Amino acid sequence: METLDYWKISKKWPKRILFSSVILLVSYILISPFYCDYIDRAKVNAMAASVNYIKLEISEIIESGRPLSEINTIKLKDYIGSTSFVFVSGEGHIFTYSEDVSTFLLFTPTIIDNKVIWRCVGQPEINIPRSCDAVL
Question: Global pTM?
């Protein structure tokens, strides 16, 4: 009697393994495209975060009423993280580009009630972080 119970249990295992494999395969097919974009978006978010210190320094210069020529004294090498290229214009615009994900972001300061509000635009749309409000 014990051998019959053993064979009943063991005959169910191949079906269970096949069923589990099918579920894993379908899950992989559905999730993998989202994961590929996730890596690129994470790199772009890191790129956007790497210029936060530059934005802070520019905001301090503008809000304190100091001349915009002081923007040229910011040492960009101290702040560049995951970006391939960073350029700061004399008006405080920050342009950053990453070769890893072929994405650029442009941060533009706007003064409202003596406070600097930053606007971000960039391209390609799929990689733009949610903190950016526009796509070029």
Answer: 0.67
Contacts by 121-130, CB closer than 8 A, 24 or more apart: 122/44, 126/37, 126/40, 126/41, 127/37, 127/40, 127/41, 127/44, 127/101, 127/103, 128/44, 128/103, 129/41, 129/44, 129/45, 129/48
* CB 95 within 8 Å of CB 108: no
- Residue 89 has which token pair? 């214009």
Which among 110, 99, 111, 109 has a CA at the least distance from the CA of 44? 99
Strands in 134-135's sheet, in edge-to-edge order, are: 85-88, 94-98, 103-112, 115-123, 134-135
Going residue by residue through the chain (136 aa), what tens digit of pLDDT does each one get? 555 555 556 666 677 778 888 888 888 888 777 666 778 888 888 888 888 888 888 898 888 888 888 877 766 665 555 567 888 888 889 998 888 888 889 999 988 888 889 998 888 887 788 777 655 4
Residues 6+ apart with CB under 8 A from 35: none
CATH number assigned to the domain covering 2-135: 3.30.700
